[in-house]
Amino acid sequence: MIETLKNTRNLPDSALQELLESTDAALAQELKDTAREVCLKVKGPEVLVRALIEWSNICRNDCLYCGIRRSRAGVPRYSLTPEQILECCDAAWRDGVPTFVLQGGENPAAAESLLPTVKEMRRRYPSAAITLSLGELPFDLYAAFKEAGANRYLLRHETANPEHYASLHPAGMRFSSRLSCIRELKRLGFETGMGMMVGSPGQTTEDLILDLRLMQEIGPDMIGIGPFIPQSGTPFENCPAGNAETTLRLLAIMRLMFPEANIPATTALATLLPGGKQAGIQAGANVIMNVYTPLKERKKYDLYKGKTDV
Ligand code: 5AD
Q1: How close is the Cα of 228 to the center of ligand 1, in Å?
Q2: What is the distance between the alpha carbons of residues 43 and 127, in angstroms, rounded to a whole number?
Q3: Does the beta carbon of 169 lie inside 6 Å of ligand 1?
Q4: Which SS3 state, helix, strand or coil, does residue 29 take?
């Protein structure tokens, strides 16, 4: 089966379902090996490192799964100062990591105050990649960030099924708005990242296939996925975690469907599965995101239970 899959970007739904659900361990291994081979051929042998700077855990949203949702009590809230952010960038640059990922809760007013910092990052490091992950923002703010020198943006779509999306998010958050933001980011010329949680409450294999189809339609440059991990003090605290093996298979499928994409082996995967970053690379991922957030604040960026902080 795999030999025929290798040269096509268009696996039929039935093949996707089989790859995701099969109990045949040899098939799963072949899938991952093939993805790794395609990754080596298309992306080369290097694993790319990103510097993740978790700039703030203050968020206006109340996503039911998320540990930094607005209404979760007992989360000490913080925002890094511009100086702290720039120190993280300097440290990453010295380490030979020229891709900065500035991520935080959705907070448009505060996000706007990052514009001068992004300009300074660009001034100091003209050749660096500056990635933002700040949620849904007004389109003119996206444009202003582009103008300030940011060139990549991560905005996971979380699920491509609008009804499932509604069950993961509070009233008022809409899948259609998320999608408009993603399309606008692409239109503005950002290298754009999408992605979803694997095994979020209520998700079916059909939903995962919809995710893949949506990404085929939009053509993300980056794809971030990780297993859902319940967090205490959230509405989903007693829901089961997603499955690491399904996550690995999806990584492999994504490498076959989107050979050129930059795909990280994520922290959520490593949190759920010891050795998960390596396993992710062996299944076709080519990016690792290392945390550069100052140690003092790291624990507060508490998206899910047991989040590893390396
Ligand atoms: N488990 C796994 N991933 C989560 N995220 C948020 N909460 C959780 C959780 N409980 C992911 C979302 C978000 C990214 C920053 O973290 O997909 O886009």
Answers
A1: 7
A2: 20
A3: no
A4: helix
